[in-house]
Amino acid sequence: MAVCDVVIPCRDEAAALPAVLADVPEGWRVIVVDNGSTDGTADVARSLGAHVVTENRPGYGAAVHAGMLASDADFVAVMDGDASMRLADLVPMYDLVSSGGTTMAVGRRRPVSRGVWPWHARAGTKVLASWIRRRSAFPIHDLAPMRVCRRDDLLYLDVQDRRFGYPLELMLRAARAGWSVREIDVAYDRRAAGTKSKVSGSVRGTARVIHDFAKVLT
Fold it and tell me: How confident is the model over 113-140, as pLDDT tens digits?
């Protein structure tokens, strides 16, 4: 059994996966959830040693949940598959959770250069993180693009959202369950060439995330 399973929801991230999977921590397993890719993402992931799960229902939450069901490790991590963040940065989060220092550790993106984070995505993240702080009282400033917790704890929360509202519902349920959350700075770089963000790549994408968050709150 792996020390920690890393769930990476992917849709058309074939060009990014070689960089993403270049530094898998020893003893960890990567679960790539192919969420409707048309660029050979699944084949590339398998060739790089990842376990691949297919989730035909579109949506970030649907892909993450499928990965959780495929995991059999005591600890699970989640991160994006666009090469903007590094798997190695999950290790200090795992150390915090596995040592009992917190129930869940999450990442706070810190751009490594100008222009990495489009203004509309940064503004949207600020608004959404503020919603999470008000509704959960967790001291976070990002949408937990990277996170680590115990698999059984996460499944017990029974998060239902299958779209972009998943992180918000996760935080609200975690707060009600009495979890503790710690935020750790992580380097945030440009996504891999040849890939396109479903969220920060356009104002429309950011607006879609805000819409999904609003549905969770109503």
Answer: 887 888 877 887 888 888 888 888 898 9
Q: Can you list the pairs that 84-87 forms with residues at least 24 positions away whose Cβ atoms lie under 8 Å?
A: 84/116, 84/188, 84/189, 84/190, 84/191, 84/192, 85/109, 85/145, 85/146, 85/186, 85/187, 85/188, 85/189, 86/23, 86/186, 86/187, 87/6, 87/20, 87/21, 87/23, 87/24, 87/25, 87/28, 87/30
pLDDT of residue 115: 78
Q: What is the CATH number of the domain that holds 188?
A: 3.90.550.10
The count of structural domains within the chain is: 1
Q: Which one-letter amino acid corresponds to residue 165? A: G
- The string of pLDDT tens digits covering residues 82-117 is 999 999 999 999 999 999 999 999 999 999 988 788
- pLDDT score, position 210: 60
How many Cα atoms within 13 Å fall on the side-chain side of residue 90?
30
Domain range for 69: 5-217
Q: Minimal CA–CA distance to 76: which of 16, 182, 185, 2? A: 2
Helices (H), the chain: 17-20, 41-47, 60-70, 91-98, 119-136, 151-157, 166-176, 203-217
Choose between 195 and 178: higher pLDDT. Answer: 178
pLDDT of residue 209: 64
CA 68 to chain centre: 12
Nearest to 185 by CA among 99, 68, 89, 51: 89
